[in-house]
Amino acid sequence: MIVVFGSINVDFVFSVDTLPQAGQTLLARAMRTEAGGKGANQAVAAAKDGATVFMFGSTGADALADLALGGLRAAGVDVGGVGQANTTGCATVCTDAAGRNQIVVAPGANLAARQAAATDALLRESTVVLTQMEADPGETAQLIKRARLAGVRPIHNLAPAGKLPPDALRALDMLVVNEDEAAWVGQQLGCEGNARELRTRLRISVIRTLGGAGVEWAEAGGGEGALPGVKVQVRDTTAAGDCFVGVLAAALDRGQPLASAAVRANVAAALACTRAGSQGSLPTGEEIDRALHGAS
């Protein structure tokens, strides 16, 4: 069972030919709204890959809340621990013809989310606690430390890059970062931003995703590995990182070793890139299985 604490948003997605520059006004080819937020996206990705998932966070007491929660409910995620405060978090996503994106997030109610809603009893029943950086960092840090004390595996996706207290970082079982986030952490620690160096400094397992170039990891116990990117026709990369993290957590929840969990997550993230959108792009477990068998 997986406990996710993090953001629950509504995404306003604009399809553009090129990403906007400073001072520039563009006409979009299309616009759509859908459920998003890094926490919710990762929860949906894990649930669609077969995990039992409990989501904790906060939406607003407004008309956007039902839309924000819709994808979680459809995927079978338990949202009984989601609170309400002020306005639902929103994100504006611009996606260009090459699948690249620019994202601006207004956190709204996400910053009012309280980790205490995840009870000690629920934590003890879980195998993985999954967090990101779109909720209050202090609340996130408290949950990480509670998870460690409960004997649960805390996995943190440092996205977007930001500071966690050192004791919370070192309480992690695993840190997941992309290239930019890894470089930021390395700068804070005074080391290179690769998985091996970050593992050495933090003494935890580290996974660094490399976009189309694949993924590398360094385990706290000494194991290391890397995978090349999966070649696909990229349509939209918006949810690729969240897909990777959610499917990775689901695989680890099932007891898979990190190396095989990374293979599965790498393929799942590539599938998400072939589709438009956030939660709508996330593959099912059956789709991932078929892609894995096709790649073997």
Report what the structure shows.
With 296 residues, this protein is of the alpha/beta class. It has a single domain, classed as UDP-N-acetylmuramoyl-L-alanine:D-glutamate ligase, CATH 3.40.1190. Helices cover 36% and strands 22% of the residues. The protein has ten helices and 14 strands. The strands form three sheets. The protein has an eight-stranded mixed sheet with strand order 4-1-9-10-11-12-13-14, sandwiched between helices. β5, α2 and β6 form a beta-alpha-beta unit. α1 crosses α8, α6 packs across α7 and α9 packs across α10. The protein starts with a strand and ends with a helix. The model has no long low-confidence stretch (mean pLDDT 96).
Q: What is the rounded Rg?
A: 18 Å
Helical percentage = 25-40%
**How confident overall, as mean pLDDT?**
96
| Total domain count | 1
| Largest beta-sheet details | 8 strands, mixed
Looking at CATH, which topology would you report?
UDP-N-acetylmuramoyl-L-alanine:D-glutamate ligase
Identify the CATH homologous superfamily.
Answer: Ribokinase
The percentage of residues in β strands lies in 15-25%
List the strand order in the largest sheet.
4-1-9-10-11-12-13-14
State the CATH class: Alpha Beta
Class of secondary structure makeup: alpha/beta
- Terminal CA distance reads 28 Å
The counted number of beta strands is 14
Order of helices and strands: EEEHEEHEEEHEHEHEHHEEEHHH
Do you know the CATH architecture? 3-Layer(aba) Sandwich
Q: Based on CA inertia axes, which overall geometry fits?
A: globular
Q: Count of helices? A: 10
